[in-house]
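WARN no homologs supplied; continuing
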Amino acid sequence: MVPGRALSPAAGGFAVVDIEASGSSPWRHRVVEVGVVLLDRALRVEAEFVTLVDPNGPVGPTHVHRITQDDVVGAPRFREIAPFLLELLAGRVLVGHHVSCDRAFLEREFARIGVSLPPVPLLCTMRLARRHLPEAGGFGLGACVAAAGLGAFAAHSALADARAAAALLRHCTQVPSDPPVEWVEPLREASALPWPRLGPSRRGRGRAQVRRRVGYEA
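OK structure emitted
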């Protein structure tokens, strides 16, 4: 069930996103899973959102994201989750591990239904990790999480990846050389952006799940 506006806090903050897709190109491939972790300005978890998405075609590399064609039978199309997803992202800085990739998939999916995403400020945990975790063996999410000592997680699962990126964000901000004051302007900019609205689709609101959590869970 997708609840109403009450679970989309309006005070601003961060939306940590992860997209699993049927391939690597936002133009040729489609989103098959979306995970979002909402953080307030102090990086505390406010709410979580996760749903499979019917890509209206092949799901792509099951060996990577472990999503099969049967898994998306009955899942909502992107248009069905789009209104609520817009509410979740509104007024927030968009965060992700290689966040420009997640942004590109979201931007393209919204464009397919005639919605233009505004130029929301981005915060990339991969870039933060390059600065604060130079000892990591690589800068994929798994390597960065391991270097930070944050424990194991189910990689390439949208909500697990979003939770891991949120934990990595908190870890990197504990380093004095990267004070949160640097985020004041991006937060202000995000909260001031005009944001598109979209009515529910005719097929209904889908089968997304929204959960509240406190802290990081591997």
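The chain has one domain: 12-179.
OK
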